Amino acid sequence: xxxxxxxxxxxxxxxxxxxxxxxxxxxxxxxxxxxxxxxxxxxxxxxxxxxxxxxxxxxxxxxxxxxxxxxxxxxxxxxxxxxxxxxxxxxxxxxxxxxxxxxxxxxxxxxxxxxxxxxxxxxxxxxxxxxxxxxxxxxxxxxxxxxxxxxxxxxxxxxxxxxxxxxxxxxxxxxxxxxxxxxxxxxxxxxxxxxxxxxxxxxxxxxxxxxxxxxxxxxxxxxxxxxxxxxxxxxxxxxxxxxxxxxxxxxxxxxxxxxxxxxxxxxxxxxxxxxxxxxxxxxxxxxxxxxxxxxxxxxxxxxxxxxxxxxxxxxxxxxxxxxxxxxxxxxxxxxxxxxxxxxxxxxxxxxxxxxxxxxxxxxxxxxxxxxxxxxxxxxxxxxxxxxxxxxxx
Length: 393
What we know:
Strand content: 15-25%
Oligomer: single chain
């Protein structure tokens, strides 16, 4: 039997902003953009008391709370705090960690549980440490698998610690609304309610198997097993880094203005490259996504032979994708995504591209991005990569 905990930082973005600015204390704040199309990324618990929540359009949030403080997001800051909280757990407890997202992770504490150090004690230690070292509150769920652990961390916020052992399922899991159940979307929840299934206990009920199979198709069995306390207890350590990194933004007004679009590309590329370096990754597939005023979406990407993490090389590719495909297009939204990611320690030079440097580590470390770009372009006999300062002139 394994012991899995799920650590969830409460109101992460908003909490980080409160740490940076003491004037926000005891005020309703949200992290969001200011445009008419912006939505709430995070709301502190004072704001939530007004009925404000994540993904709500900002104009609706302002209508609910006239004194609402709207803070522009600082994603580089959130990434720093995310890295710190993961590192704290890894260094002080165990590195058996699966990162769920920027503000949450699963931790397998099986190997550090003993008679004197029970799961509940470890959870309190982690919660206390994150508060003392980072000033952040977190909620923690404790169970024998990932599903129940995450349901536990959602059970009480902020600063909750909740166990959901097998004998606690009837009292802690089954009475909850199906709206609270992981991986049951709103559409599925609404459909289930129309057929008399309102609570997680109804999904767990063997009498409802045929109804579930009819309504949820092939997914019904997974939900049925989860409702009865089943779930994986194996952490996916490959999720210690993402499979892709992307960021997009909707323009305040539809635009074909080159300078406005260029500035947004620069901003988005800075953001994704910063995340790339934060996770200590490199990429070889760079993609540009656009959405036109009629809501049609288009994607263009370029995969190069070698992994890179250099901003100038990456934005050069992004600008090339834009200029070759969308320079005359009116845009509603634009986004940049990096994929085909590997961790730096996994990188190997496998071609003859850098033979001139391979036998001389000192020279290899001094290779400039311009030299790398020139060598790649020469190999492919075309301008695969351009330097950002050239492309943005």
